[in-house]
Write a structure and sequence with these properties.
The structure holds two protein chains of two kinds.
Chain A lengths: L2 H6 L5 H21 L4 H8 L5 H22 L10 E2 H18 L3 H10 L2 H26 L7 E3 L3 H5 L3 H21 L3
Antiparallel strand pairs in A: 1-2
Helix pairs in contact in A: 2-6, 4-9, 6-7
Chain B lengths: L1 H5 L5 H19 L6 H16 L7 H6 L5 H20 L9 H7 L3 H22 L5 H8 L3 H25 L2
The chains are: A mainly alpha, B mainly alpha.
């Protein structure tokens, strides 16, 4: 597509938007049914008293990983890993974690919390996230050439990092996730 | 089947497997992973444009993101609708200012909770953009692709989150 076309167009094509909306409705439905639109469940995870969040994430990663890598090996899908650096992912991740605990929702679950009627999310949290994101955009020119470039490693995946076949990583990670989930259940968590 | 939709909670494993299968479909059909936080940066830029005009779009970060309504923004809108649907079907929808876990430690005054939620929002909104993703983009979609950046980010989300939550509830909340 012509570069100018994409720049002047404010809205993407309708099928793209409708698929996004449909996937979002299912995602939001699942998040609410899982209880993770609820502050108590998310902060309970961070206080290590409620392991719902971890169980959902790990079973999603297990299912998703096996399916995506199976489809990748058949050439049906292409991976889309984010590139990263120590400065980006460690520092950004830790800042995110602090906000995660203070807010008690994350950017996805806050959308679910808004749908669930939680007003601390709608009035306080949403306004905060928008301002925090705008603040980053303002600082970006100063950060992008410096700290965000520290320890850059690109859009590497673990199989590429270890220079092995995909399944040499997928299978052990799957086994580890199953063991961890089994252990969580055994421990009554 | 209908009974399933009106249940308040599903097993976390059922939900996780559902999200995993959903991610197969988003990769197959839309060629994109599930992710949410970029939407908030775009929205922020679009709102700023309303007040400060088109020059906002010239900021390098918004040049990189491009301020358009796209797939992910609709996904996030869908999350609001899907959660609302699920909550209504289960009778779990409620207008609530103060979560009960917060109230047991810090009281049920809405103002304190909203101010803290706002501050938390600023930090997580800033951190999500710094890290280049959130709990869905890095935590689920990135880790399931075995992306190095996402495994590091997800670990740091939880390290920062666990330490801060303990600080808030075990030290400040004493």
């Amino acid at each position: 597509m012509d570069e100018r076309d994409t720049r002047t167009k404010r809205v993407k094509d309708l099928p793209t938007l409708l698929w996004g909306l449909a996937f979002g409705i299912v995602f939001g439905f699942l998040l609410q049914k899982g209880g993770v639109t609820n502050y108590d469940v998310i902060v309970g995870q961070l206080l290590l008293t409620d392991f719902t969040v971890l169980k959902i994430i790990l079973s999603a990663v297990l299912t998703g990983m096996i399916g995506i890598y199976a489809m990748k090996s058949r050439g049906w899908v292409q991976l889309n890993p984010k590139s990263g650096s120590a400065g980006t992912n460690i520092i950004g991740g830790l800042i995110f974690g602090v906000g995660f605990a203070v807010l008690g929702y994350c950017p996805g679950t806050i959308a679910g919390a808004i749908g669930n009627g939680y007003l601390d999310a709608t009035v306080g949290g949403l306004a905060g996230i928008l301002i925090g994101a705008g603040f980053f955009a303002a600082l970006y020119p100063r950060l992008s050439a410096g700290i965000l470039k520290k320890g850059e490693f690109g859009d590497l995946t673990l199989p590429q990092l270890f220079k092995v076949n995909d399944w040499v990583v997928v299978v052990p990670v799957a086994v580890l996730i199953v063991l961890l989930l089994y252990w969580l259940e055994r421990a009554g968590l | 089947m209908l009974e399933l939709l009106t249940q308040t909670r599903w097993s976390p494993y059922a939900v996780g497997i559902g999200i995993g299968i959903l991610s197969w479909l988003t990769f197959l059909i839309s060629k994109r992973p599930i992710a949410c936080s970029t939407t908030f940066a775009k929205l922020s830029g679009m709102i700023e444009m309303v007040f400060r005009g088109d020059k906002v779009e010239q900021k390098p970060y918004y040049q990189k993101l491009r301020l358009v309504v796209g797939w992910q923004m609709m996904l996030v809108l869908g999350v609001v609708i899907g959660s609302l649907l699920s909550a209504l079907l289960a009778g779990d929808f409620r207008w609530q200012w103060v979560p009960s876990l917060w109230a047991t430690t810090f009281g049920s005054a809405p103002l304190l909770r909203v101010v803290v939620a706002f501050l938390g929002g600023v930090i997580i909104g800033f951190g999500a953009r710094w890290a280049g993703g959130c709990t869905s983009g890095h935590g689920i979609s990135g880790t399931l692709q075995l992306a190095v950046s996402s495994w590091i980010s997800a670990l740091c989300f939880f390290i920062g989150g666990i330490l801060t939550a303990h600080l808030i509830f075990r030290l400040v909340g004493q």
